[in-house]
Amino acid sequence: MGSLLDRYLLRAILATTGLVLFVLLALGGFIDFIAQLDGVGTGTFGVREAIFFVLLRLPQSAFEMLPIAALLGALMGLGALAGHSELVVMRAAGVSIARLAVSTVLAGIVLLILMAALGELVGPPLERFAEQYRTLHKKGSFGGDGVQSAWVKDGPLIVNVQAPQEGAIRGAIHVFELGGDQTLASVGRADAAHLDSGQRWLLENFRESLLTRRPIEARSESRSSRAGGINPELLQLSVVDPDELAARGLYNYIGYLRNNDLDARRYEVALWSRIATLTSVVIMAVLALPFVFGPLRSAGAGARLMVGVLIGAGYFLISKTLVNSSEVFELNPLLIAWLPTLALAVITLVALSRVR
Q1: Which pTM value belongs to this model?
Q2: Residue 2's pLDDT band (boundaries 50, 70, 90)?
């Protein structure tokens, strides 16, 4: 009976969660499309390009929406079963709340796997490609106002780069080199640069001023190189917002920041928040169970949706507030990232324990 029960509840929860996610994505995609209409007509960016841009961003949006979709879907799916007294019959047949919770957890695990695939394999690369695609059609290249620049510390070098793509830097770069006593030893500028397979900076038309000489000495070279330790992947990650990075990219970039004695707190919070958010999708699904056996047993679909939206919005707002506070007050990244999810888990366990 156990496997039959699991399949039945799994099908009910996943079907309604899929429907809720589709509605949320349609609504979010429409709002995003309206926002992109302001840029239509700039360069070669037209309505077709705006639609394609929105479609490219849907996997990342699905990753962000899945926790609340899991809660709403579980509330709707289990609520429908409760409305037809099917859950009451299951309880009368001897199925415990704990056993129903296990079946709900299985549905949450399926959603977690889907969410992990979207957040780690599909969403981040498509999100970056979408930004590049929009910039290319608006500006005619990857340069211009739509491209970020970044400051990169690589051993004794501090480099300002524009639009790194696959290890190549588009446009001029500025190189600041520190001496052994951590004072500024030289300032240079190259018209173009890239990283080779040996992680060396290859600089073209490089001009620099040696500040350690008296008088200051200026020199130029058509080609120059500097030893480095950063790889093209990390260089490309330097211009990506932490919220758009996969866990692997965040982990690698945190290692780079620590190796160069830089503050990695923002990226640590993003990494732990990403992992905690993955876990929350399971908790959200289970949280629906005490509601459908309690105050929402005989409620309509509208009431269930309202409760789900309020809980999801509250969780989202608290998480974002804590993340922003951690950057301002330098709070522990691990604690800040996990606190909302742990609180949600405790609330879920307490609510389940009170179901009779």
Answers
A1: 0.82
A2: low
